[in-house]
Amino acid sequence: MDQAFDFRAAPVPPWRRVNLRAIALALTTCLVLSGLVSFSRWVIESEHRSLELAESAESASSIVGTMSGDDTLTEVSQVAEEPAIDAEARADARSALQAARRLAKGRATFLDAGPGQLSSIVDRLVFVDGPAEGPGVVSVASRRAAWGAALTGPSGACYLVRFSPGDGVTYGLGRSCTGEEALAARGTSW
């Protein structure tokens, strides 16, 4: 054999130089990926918690003393003369009513559903005990056995909503647009 072709491997250097840039890039990539995974888990868990809270709020919206036993708020059919521009004001009235019923849950009184207490749980509306002078402002009157709210829509119409355990939810249109006026509302729709 003539030694022209040899099957030996190339010699390996005794030590390799460590590439610090590659190590830093690998560590940064791991940190970013673990941060994204943690953030994603947090978002998913908070969405699940929010969904559970919303479902429990819907199921817990009854008030002690409801005579009819029917806990759902009936949707008010939109009458032809109701301006469509005021749909948000009517929706805000229903939201305020649901919040008041949540505050009164477990109690036989609506006295704990005044403007201050409602402001603490519904932050997109302004609750007052005087007249409702514009969109997003809700005038509230709470009594032991009844609760009323008044809202002014963008068209200038005043929408009244009232709840009492004996009568359920009643509606009306008002002039002074106060919660006190809403306590006298007895209609089945606006």
Question: What would you note in describing this structure?
Answer:
The protein is built from 4 helices and 5 strands. The protein has helices spanning 20-59, 87-104, 115-121, 179-182, and strands spanning 126-128, 137-142, 147-152, 158-164, 168-174. Strands 1-2-3-4-5 form a 5-stranded mixed β-sheet. It has a domain at 84-182. Residues 60-80 have low confidence and may be disordered. The protein starts with 19 loop residues before the first helix and ends in an 8-residue tail after the last helix. Strand 3 (147-152) and strand 4 (158-164) form a beta hairpin. The chain is an alpha+beta fold and 190 residues long. Helix content is 36%, strand content 15%.
Helical content (DSSP H or I, runs of 4+): 25-40%
Count of DSSP E strands?
5
Query: Which H/E pattern describes the elements?
Result: HHHEEEEEH
Kindly report the spatial arrangement of strands forming the biggest sheet: 1-2-3-4-5
Amino- and carboxy-terminal Cα gap: 109 Å
Average pLDDT confidence is 80
Main sheet: strands, sense, barrel: 5 strands, mixed
Principal-axis shape: rod-shaped
Summary keywords:
single chain; 190 residues; alpha+beta; five-stranded mixed β-sheet; 5 strands
List the helices and strands and how they pair.
Elements: H1 20-59, H2 87-104, H3 115-121, E1 126-128, E2 137-142, E3 147-152, E4 158-164, E5 168-174, H4 179-182
Parallel strand pairs: 1-2
Antiparallel strand pairs: 2-3, 3-4, 4-5
